[in-house]
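Lay summary

Proteins are chains of building blocks that fold into shapes. Our project writes down both the chain and a compact code for its shape. Here are two examples, one after the other.
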Amino acid sequence: MKHKESMYWADQIARRIVERFPKEKLYTVAAGITPSGTVHIGHFREIITTDIICRAIKSLGKKARFIYSWDDYDRIRKVPKNVPDPKGFEKYMFMPGVDAPDPWGCHKSYTLHFEKEAEEAVPLVGIKPQFIYQSNMYRSCKYAEEIKYVLENRFQIRVILNKYRKEPLPENWYPVAIYCKKCNREQTEITDWDNDYTLKYHCKMCNYKGETNFKKEGLTKLPWRVDWPMRWRYERVSSEGGGKEHNTPGGSIDTGHDLCKNVFKYGPPVRFMYDFITVKGQTGKMSSSKGDVVTLKENLEVYIPELTRYIFAGSKPQMEFKISFDEDIFKVYEDFYKCERIYFGKENVNDRDKAHWSRVYEMSVVNKAPKKMPVQPAFKHCVELINLHRDSEKALEAVPEKLTKSDKERYLAILICAKNWLAKYAPEQYKFELQENPSSAGLSEKQKAALKDLAKALNKNYTDSKELSSVFGEIAKKHDLGFKDFFGAVYQVLINKERGPRLAPFILAVGRPKIRKILDKIK
């Protein structure tokens, strides 16, 4: 199926964008956030959704760019609970976030701390947007003409915004905010405008009265509902989405589109909505201010980059979903592998599913799709290998298959993820250690005899797990043991647990001689 006919969600949005702006030479898709806390995996949904749409536009043969705005010139409205000294941080309230120091002492400012965390992480999944710092844009007076235009049209802007408000804005309202020259806080009221570039103001915080020329001084900024559509025209944005809260009736997307059409005479950009994502086991959405978040880097500790992309590429943006860090991770890996097999024609599905999942895979790969299907090590098996060898490099050496360089890289990456998962998230039942000095306490004579027969059986050079599995049944039957009693005895002796990994592959992975040596210690 050609991309122009594709029903994949990003291709549909891309076609709408090109239809709305047919003469555009460079399509701009945008996203952004106020970096007032950790940029978590929920925020990442906006980033990757925009990146996928940008890819979809390019696949139509068009030029496209992805811009990401850091709204670091927004005032600090509340103190996040996860800063080291919340009480001490209160003195920066109402100042621009970019002017507050980094409480952790590793970056030049509070906002830069969170910006750099995200900027270092997104390239790991193939995303390289053009980052725009709004503090730089405002302070260098880049928006001076836009601010003047807004002031000239303030009465029309007030009428439009009042359509969506319960309490109307007053007639003397100005659609700008000013940071006080004296205390650097945005707690000012405009007292006069000279119909050019100068505004007079009074600071309610320090009682300072003064004026500022916004063509020469970058102290003036627009409020969010006016700033957003202004930037759409300034950057010629073709599409920008918004979260659930922005898409409510009368929300900032509704007002932004109204202002864009009727005041700024542009567009408006093609809109789309993305819903919240949560972590399985947590209640409610993640909150940067509370600190109960998972970052992209933390997600990449257990999910390889292409699978991280797949989690988002495979879901429509408006669908809520949960990210799993418990044993559901096994299924997530298997689902991705199935998608990969469909792309490479190794899984039989109907034409519609083939087209859909192949497109999902194209959006999941970090760069270009490989020419041959990569190795697909089961995550559960990788967990078992880490349990046995403790080290990811040593675990890779124990893999019997002959691997290409790229397959070794993927296998090692998944082994590293398995090691991280065991250390941070795995339930106890998936953690084990091979017992060099096993205990036979509680075992019946029948079970001990069966273990001795198993040790003898391992003298044979088994290379096939199916063949070895058949031996287990024969031994259990010989000693009149049910499978539960037989396998329970083996797992108790080998890993000191009632249950464990699939026994035959486990024995072959550890090595028959080593298992036989342990079993021989049972008296």
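And here is the second example, written the same way.
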Amino acid sequence: LTLSRLEAEAALTMAAVDLGAVARRVLAELAPKALANGQTLELEAAESCLIEGEETLLAVLLRNLADNALRYSPPGARVLVDLRRAAGAGNNIVLRIEDSGPGLLDAERARLGERFFRVTGTNASGSGLGWSIVRRIAAVHQLDVRVDKSARLGGLAVQVSGRAI
């Protein structure tokens, strides 16, 4: 439904959104899942991280990314959500979600965002649409999404960046 709405380019109500507050709410919703799996879910957020956007969709983006990090990481894994203003020039906000899970092969990373693509060799459930939704929400909000290996935790690192207000 979310993807259909985005593809229909339904009118979105853009407003100032405190991404830190959204992150706290989403992670509070996911905390029981992490706890049940013995996983650590952490948030490091700057005081003010305002972005122009549609709050419900930004929450979906964050929930999909954090939920994937938990879903594809083993029991005992660590998931870190880091939200801050970018250092240096520009007025950007950077959201990084890193995990200590197995990560992805380069070929798998290249396919993220394809509808119904699912990583093979995992028992994790899902429809294969989460990344398509993330990519579309990011595009609507003019956000840049990058995926690489986490230097801090060893698993996957997803970075979403965009203009702060």
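What can we say about the second shape? The first helix runs from residue 2 to 7.
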